[in-house]
Amino acid sequence: MAETFQVIAPRPSPVKAEGFVPWLRANLFSSWGNSLTTLVLLGFFAYQLPPLIEWFTFRAVWRPDHDACQAARGTGACWGVIAEKYRIIIFGRYPLEQQWRPAAATSAMLALLVASCMRPFWKRWLVLLWAAVLALFFALMGGGVLGLEHVPTERWGGLPLTLMLATLSMMLAFPISVFVALGRRSTLPAIRTFCVIYVELIRGVPLISVLFMASFMFPLFMPPGLSIDVLLRVLAGITLFAAAYMAEIVRGGLQAIPRGQLEAADSLGLSYWQAQRKIVLPQALALVVPGIMNNFISLFMDTSLVTIVSLYELMGSMSMALNGDANWRPFMVEGYLFIAAIYFTVCFAMSRYSLWIEKQLRRSTNR
Q1: What is the torsional sign of CA 316, 317, 321, 324?
Q2: What are the structural domains of the chain?
Q3: 85-125 pLDDT, tens digit each
Q4: CB 333, CB 343: distance < 8 Å
Q5: Residue 198 and residue 244 in contact, taking contact as beta carbons nearer than 8 Å
């Protein structure tokens, strides 16, 4: 039979799926309900943002002038309180004439944190660099070496204390959490029971209780004449608390690995630790990157609770700086906004870095 030629009618071009307009269509105007909600929120922001921006900028007082701030009170923000109290907010009770030391120590640690997040620095010598920077940090903060005046840890505070507690607790909690997660899946009853008790006990109490025990109760069990610095006790408490939560995140990743992976490792003659290090853990940790980063962000914000044990980190330093001065006490809102901006900047950077890691992992698995 002869075939009949038929002309195919032209079809519309494919709808563009990438770009700003497709994103708006998919996320904000995908249905009539979403469209209505978007329009209502846009109207609310259009009504509220102009006076808020005017309070933030145009009517704000930027210089540390108390009389001008009082005159603008209620109509404009007083950012002069930050210009007046920023040294106490950032460095806490650290001696004023020695504040170049915490500034240098914090700058060195921040630079190393940023460098550690870049692939060209992922070398073995990075561990040695971390050891050197941590030694420099404590030497500058504590003093007593190289002719520097000794400053006790009770006077450490502000951003250096927050950064140090968050960084060290993350670094120490991560390996502990991996071993605890492996211990909970162990076939040895003693190890499994110990890990279960540790995780359930720590997760069953708030962090404030852990800090209270580490600061006030733990010294009661020490021999007479033996005392451990309160900063070390607090750091240990935060680390153990974070490790317990992170262990459950890692255990979730371990449970997601198919049994066939372990059977394949056994068939190759790999030992238990070789299989965990080369096969299981790389896959398990890649699966739980969002959960681990979420725990890191939560840990960074939880450092504000150390105020309960008289360690004035960033939030505590701000409260101390303003509550101790009756002239600037009415401008606590501006102080809290300044602290919130610091916390948001750090946490947002951590979340963006987590997304970058996930993107790199997806690229490696799609090959």
Answers
A1: positive
A2: 79-94+151-365 (1.10.3720.10)
A3: 999 999 989 998 999 999 999 999 999 999 998 888 888 89
A4: no
A5: yes
